[in-house]
Automatic annotation (TrEMBL):
Transmembrane segments: none annotated. Pfam families: Syd. It comes from Pseudidiomarina marina. Keywords: Cell inner membrane, Cell membrane, Membrane. It comes from the Bacteria. This is SecY-interacting protein.
Amino acid sequence: MSLDSVFDQFIHRYRAAYAEANTPLLTEAHDDWQAPIYCQHHADETEANGQVQWQPILQQEPLQFDDLANALEQPFHPDIAIFYGRWFAADLNVEYDNHPLILLQNHCREDGERLQANLAGHVLMKRRLRQPITLFIGLAEESDDLLITVDNESGQVGLEFVGQPQHEILAPSLAAFIEKIKPRIVSDEEA
């Protein structure tokens, strides 16, 4: 099954899991962004904490990585464009093999630009360290410096500590990885 189909199904499962748990999807609001995912400020919270309800929105014009790849003279694995260019969404709380993970997403175009700048920095760091190029897609909740990355050459999804090469392969592809993860319910008390 194609990555876009697998990802669409996961987004559906994610929304359904939160609905079944009667827990709103909440994220931190960025006042300077006109993010299409923002629905409303959470009624039970003061606006001081900046939480808003959100919903995933299919990108009408997918985020493009061609200019960044050309500037870095480094083609990106095609899965990255689908992963970050399919949906506008808040970061996704997931579980993989009983480990809590956070998959990064982008709220809007401005967030996508920030994400691309961070990816560029990651690629440049990998070059400087003479390590295989990876592209981050998330992080482990257990450790701030443990990244979930896609190997740019093979497309394998693995774990790596910041500044280190991948040390554990989780799945042979991003589609296979997304098929294995489960939505993890995080309430506003935990956020």
